[in-house]
Amino acid sequence: MTTTTDAPVLELRDVRKTYPGGVTALDGVDLTVRRGEVVVIVGPSGCGKSTLLRTVNGLEPLTGGAIALDGSQITGSGTRWETVRQRVGMVFQSYELFNHLTVLGNLTLAPVRVAGTPRAKAERRGLELLARVGLADKAGSYPRELSGGQRQRVAIVRALAMQPEVLLLDEITASLDPEMVREVLDVVVELADNGMTMLVVTHEMGFARAVADRVVLMDRGRVVEEAEPEEFFTNPRSDRARAFLQTFTYTRSTRRAGPDVSAEPAAEG
Amino acid sequence: MSPDVLLEHAPLFARAAVVTVRIAALGILGALTVGLVCAAVEHFRVPVGRQAVRAYVELARNTPLVVQLFFLYFALPKVGVVWSGEACAIIGLTFLGGGYMAEALRSGLDAVDASQVDGALSLGMSRGAALRHVVLPQGVAVAVPALTANVIFLVKETSVVSVVALPDLMYVAKDIIGSSYDTREALTLLVVAYLVILLPVALGARALEGRWRRAGLGS
Amino acid sequence: MSTTPGTTPDATGEVAAAPKRRTTLVAAIVVAALALAGVVTWLAFGRSQGAATGPRTVAQIQEAGKVRIGVFSDKAPFGSVDSSGAYVGYDIEYAERVAKDLGVTLELVPVEAAARVEYLTSGKVDIILANFTVTEERAEKVDFAKPYLKVSLGVVSPDGAPITDVAQLDGKDVLVVRGTTAETYLEAHHPEVKIQKYEQYTEVTNALLDGRGAAWVTDNTEALAWAKNNDGFSTTIASLGPQDSIAAAVQKGNADLLRWLDDELVTLGKENFFHAAYTKTLEPVYGTDVSADELVVEGGVVR
User: Fold this and answer.
1) Where is each ABC transporter domain found (chain A) (predicted)?
2) pLDDT, tens only, A86-125
3) Chains meeting C at 3+ CB pairs closer than 8 A?
4) Interface membership of A178 toward C (CB under 8 Å)
């Protein structure tokens, strides 16, 4: 059971993003995330969910609306995004680990260079984080030597090394082989249980259902439905939500009678 | 081929080798600096700068060093600019080499996924820090084979600086051939001298590439 | 860096080592290539030390119908190319007469000072008529005919800083063309001078004009000619070092051609050929500064 307070950590008001060519990715999005909450954003491809995530840490500048972090606006003209990003971490679909550094090097680069943490302390913290996800023995390895699931777990703890208040997770299992999805999502569930505020974009519905405090459905740049997970998945209110969930359900109208599986297998040569 | 003659002329070659190495080293340093600036301008698509760099790279890579040296040493004085032979050699190597280094470094930088910068930025790094700590190290690693080839090429190119009366290895070889007619010995010493200079460079580069192989960079 | 199924590295992260066989093959190819290069180089240089092409006798030249004579293309008034691309000069007059009297066509081959010996020893030319000063060292490598010009060294310096005594060159930069008697003389007698060597006459004169050296040391005949044509410079020392002579040279051991040339000189002497050549090519340059007899050698006998 996650603990949340009522204080909003993130407030998105009428967020808009239109590209110079005229394409509108975000068409007025309102969203509030409270401390300790896990908000999962789902939606069909092209609905703007990744773009929305990237506006929160400034990788996509807004063309309209505003975002506030902990009560203060972060999308004004004077924003120092470097400072904001130390409080809002992000994990990417393609991990974006630094290939020329070891795992430990990846974890300590930003704390040392950006936060000014002494190297010894940063390394200690890095090893603790690696131990938390069971990768302490990989500290000296290079990203290339790890499996996809291991790399993504390193990416997550790399973001955690900066001790962010909010974590943005952008389709972090989309590039993984199915058997590695589990190990990564286990980490996310553990983070949720420990009170990390997270904004998650995913298309793993089982995962969304398990970890979300709230599910948000987006379509064509707008929020279409917001609900608690159970409600969303079993009893969606909007047609769009229903249609969306339908894409994950498969039915066959007729089924062939299979071989009689109760009989012993025929002895064959 | 007489070992006595080889030994007799060896000290001259050693002294000339110092000249060759000095000119090559300074020229290569200049070339790397120019190359890095040009590569950055192209990589970041700086307007106007980009076109200027392109023009420079084409000019530098498509004119032989000899021609550039003649221009610097014999043509510039006609408009009042008189530089010493050594200065002309270093400037020529920088100009020529800069074009090659720019290409190598640009390819290296371009080979680094733009999304690596996203990763760096998301951790709170400035664009400058991202360039310095994430993009550049990886870009240079990718560029090392090409950079090494350029270094070796530039060292060999120094063999033409004798046209501006610089006492490098070729100059000394010609001296010995001209005065004592010990052609075989002189040319053997010449080849050996260049090998002595270039083999360590080649081996050092291979060691460097080996170091990065584990991280999967460069190949 | 996304993972594609089937390419994840194994747990140890080891890179598969290159097959040993392939490395050995590459090494073998490299060694073979080097050996081949070495053999070819050896043959090439071995040959040029001896005679790549043997000396051609007069009969052979006449049968071939063409004689190859090496000359300067940038040393007026001895061997240079005029604006229409034709060779002119004192040496050229001699070369043209030789071809005419041999009864063959003339092929003039431009040479650099430092390459004159090499062109003969490798058989690239039959005769060198490139203002070639007779020295003992050179006589060990080539055979000289009798002389046709007297020469010693001269020094050209700017009017603003004239060099009237060789001692003034101490510690200064002096320009010479590589492979000339000036180079040898300075290195032997004035080691305190800093010598800059250039390959060609055009380069050394440009360097002089650009102020890269205190003086240019060369044949006095050359010095006089150039200084006259260039304002701001004069031949400040007209005769440096010993009195030498200039003669045609042939490949060592080419007794037949040598004899023909020496006989030819006697013939030409009877008609005062070289005085006429002087009048045509050198007098316009030197004017009254020098008289023909000071320089010209007629009939191969120095007076």
Assistant:
1) 10-245
2) 999 999 999 999 999 999 999 999 999 999 999 999 999 9
3) A, B
4) no
